[in-house]
Amino acid sequence: MKTKDKIILAALDLFNEKGERNISTNHIAAHLNISPGNLYYHFRNKSDIIYEIFKSYELLVDTYLHISSDQEIKIPDLIAYLDAVFNGLWAYRFFHRDLEHLLDSDPRLQEDYREFTFRCLKGIQSIVNAMKESKIYQPLSASQIRTKSLNVWLIVTNWMTYLKTIQADEGSHNEVYNRKCIQHGVYLVLDFVIPYLYEDKRALAIEYQEKYRFDEVESSI
Amino acid sequence: MKTKDKIILAALDLFNEKGERNISTNHIAAHLNISPGNLYYHFRNKSDIIYEIFKSYELLVDTYLHISSDQEIKIPDLIAYLDAVFNGLWAYRFFHRDLEHLLDSDPRLQEDYREFTFRCLKGIQSIVNAMKESKIYQPLSASQIRTKSLNVWLIVTNWMTYLKTIQADEGSHNEVYNRKCIQHGVYLVLDFVIPYLYEDKRALAIEYQEKYRFDEVESSI
Fold this sequence. Notes:
The structure is a homodimer. By secondary structure, chain A is mainly alpha-helical. In chain A, 76% of the residues lie in helices and 0% in strands. The interface between A and B is large, with 43 and 43 residues.
């Protein structure tokens, strides 16, 4: 692996584990046993590393939100999409955990994230539309699809912020617990989606939904 | 009006209009034609002013989320609740527009906001429950009500962050436009709630919902 890629991966791991604000370029270099000078040869500063990480996150999300217009979608496909989305959130969790701060620190990232948001919303709409064409989703107008896609986006992107808000101490739980918390997001999105499925499809969707349920995260409410 | 209250009101206006980060205690004092010393007599620093503003916001929200267990709720009551919630968001819009930053800057606010979140979620649950008892909302289990209340909370609290993300330039629109954007949040929450109303109640809810629709905010999607 190239040093540049090693730096990105190490930074992502450290940011996810310790929080981006607690990790300096020196920490990253020390973690890789390379000199700070070697790191600066590849990246001017921490912002540039974060920006590269965002670019790879963006690529990942763009890949799974891109579907061809005649693609058939069945319930397991819908579940696979949602699973992938929340796996992405987990893999890049430092990013959504501190989104506002990161966007405030880098105008380039702010602009790119804005475009990314619009692309994601269009991607969600095309998936809902394909579900409608595949006769698992009830007929909705283009405007209704747009509104519902927006609500799904609001739930997905706020889930990490919510978890951060309610956890008095981020380090108080282990990784398995934290991962289950994030995956409960699939449960929440399905709760929103299921009423619009055709009645004969709902039982299967509910069966899948139960696998993502993590009662502990709601029990404090 | 007491000087202390004048300071809080002036700060709220200035924060909403110009953004909290662009306003110092000196700006607030100048705006009120009082000396910085006079302001410091009432508040040690800007954090203390923000904290007082949060306390009044909290009081407002607590008031309208508190309902007695036998209160009957009809569709107009539901609309009035949502209207009040989004009016509150508008009146204290600087707060949700920059929530993460504010919570990061003040551990006392962070802790209070966490408790506030839990109280709001319980408040939403009691409203959903009262709607069920009033026979406008379909029967749901306690766990389903909890999940749906959480989704409503995620939509409401993320709406302001979303608007901030998609607006390239915050000052590019006038106040009427910005207010309509926020009120579109009522439309979004109703989109989530309406499928669970009894069928004979839906038409009235949709009629109300249309009044909050602001297509411009979705047209860029």
